[in-house]
Design brief:
The protein is of the alpha/beta class. It folds into three domains: 141 residues, 2-enoyl-CoA Hydratase, Chain A, domain 1 (Alpha-Beta Complex), CATH 3.90.226; 60 residues, no CATH class; 66 residues, no CATH class. 39% of the residues lie in helices and 25% in strands. The protein has nine helices and eleven strands. The model has no long low-confidence stretch (mean pLDDT 85).
Length: 288
C-alpha cells in the first residue's frame, strides 16, 4: 500500500506480548504521517499499549482499554501439576504487579520497616518464585513504563500529562482486569478520544464480521467441536490482519480425541479430551 497520509488500525485484542505491540506502532508510523486506532470492543493490555501510540483514538460506547500489566512465564517460575497427567506440570504466569503488591503488603499494611524483616519477606518470596524470575519481573515492569512513555512522546509534548497517563495505565488501577471506558480514557487519562456516530456504526458492522470469522463471542468447547464423533481434526482462526486487498489469518489446526480418564485415587473413570496441535501459522487467505 506504500506510504499514506493517514493509516487507521481497526483493533481488537485481549492481550499479548508488549514488545510486539510497540513494534507494530513503530512499523505503521514508518508508512504514514498520522496514525489512528479504531476500537470496537476490547483493546486490553498490549492492545492498550498500541492505542497509546495513536494520534487519535475512535472508541465505540462498548470500547475498552485496560491496564498494561504483563506476566512473566518462565521454566524457572512456579509450576502446577496438570490434572490427569501424573508427573506433568506447567509453568504458572507471575504477574508483575502481584509481586509489587506482595512487597507493599509487608511495607504498608503490616508496617514492616525494619530492613532485616524486609529481607526475610524477600527470602520467603524467592523460595516460591526463582530469583531470576523476580529479576525478570522488575525488568519487564520498567520496560512497560518505558514503552508506554516512548509511544506517547511520539504525539504528545506535555511531560506531566505523559507521566500521569503512564502511572494510571501501569500502576494506578491495581488490577489487570480493570476496564477503562471511553469516558475515562477521554476525561481521566486525557487521551485524544473521538466520538463519531457514523464511524461507530460502521465499526460495529465490521466487528460483527470479524466476530463470525474468529468466533470471538463463542467460548471454546471441545465437546461441541467433536459432536457425535470420537476424533476430529479442526481449523481455528485465531487472529486476522486485513488490508484493502490482502488478508492473513493465524490458523491453528488441531486434532481432538474423546478419551476416558482414570485419575489416581479416583474410583470411577471420567470422560475427557486429548488435543494435539498439528500446525500453527500465518496464512494468506483472501477468501475470508
Amino acid at each position: 500500500m506504500g506510504r499514506q497520509r493517514r493509516i487507521d488500525l481497526f483493533l481488537y485484542g485481549a492481550g499479548g506480548i508488549t514488545m510486539a505491540g510497540y513494534g507494530l506502532v513503530n512499523l505503521i508510523r514508518e508508512f504514514c504521517d498520522s496514525f489512528g486506532v479504531i476500537i470496537p470492543f476490547k483493546a486490553h493490555s498490549t492492545a492498550t499499549l498500541v492505542a497509546l501510540g495513536a494520534d487519535e483514538i475512535v472508541m465505540t460506547k462498548m470500547g475498552q482499554l485496560s491496564p498494561i500489566d504483563p506476566s512473566v512465564v518462565s521454566p524457572l517460575g512456579p509450576q502446577i501439576q496438570i490434572p490427569g497427567q501424573p508427573g506433568a506440570a506447567q509453568p504458572v504466569p507471575v504477574n508483575v504487579e502481584d509481586v509489587r503488591s506482595y512487597i507493599d503488603i509487608a511495607r504498608k499494611e503490616l508496617g514492616v520497616k525494619d530492613e532485616d524483616l524486609l529481607v526475610r519477606v524477600l527470602e520467603r518470596l524467592s523460595q516460591t518464585v526463582h530469583p531470576l524470575v523476580l529479576g525478570s519481573v522488575n525488568r519487564i515492569r520498567e520496560q512497560t513504563s518505558f514503552l508506554a512513555t516512548t509511544l506517547l512522546k511520539q504525539h504528545m509534548d506535555n511531560p506531566e500529562k505523559i507521566t500521569n497517563i503512564v502511572e494510571i495505565i501501569t500502576r494506578g488501577r491495581f488490577s489487570h482486569d480493570y476496564l477503562i471506558s471511553r469516558k475515562e480514557a477521554k476525561d481521566v487519562l486525557g487521551l485524544n478520544v473521538v466520538e463519531d456516530e457514523k464511524i461507530e456504526n460502521e465499526t460495529f458492522r465490521l466487528y460483527r464480521e470479524c466476530d463470525g470469522i474468529l468466533q470471538l463471542s463463542t467460548p471454546y468447547n471441545a465437546e461441541a467441536v467433536l459432536g457425535a464423533n470420537d476424533t476430529v481434526t479442526a481449523d481455528f482462526n485465531r487472529a486476522l490482519i486485513e488490508a484493502d486487498d490482502l488478508t492473513h489469518v493465524f490458523r491453528t489446526r488441531k486434532k481432538i480425541d474423546r478419551v476416558t480418564l482414570t485419575p489416581p485415587q479416583v474410583p470411577t473413570s471420567t470422560p475427557g479430551f486429548f488435543e494435539r496441535i498439528l500446525s500453527e501459522q500465518w496464512l494468506e487467505d483472501n477468501n475470508i
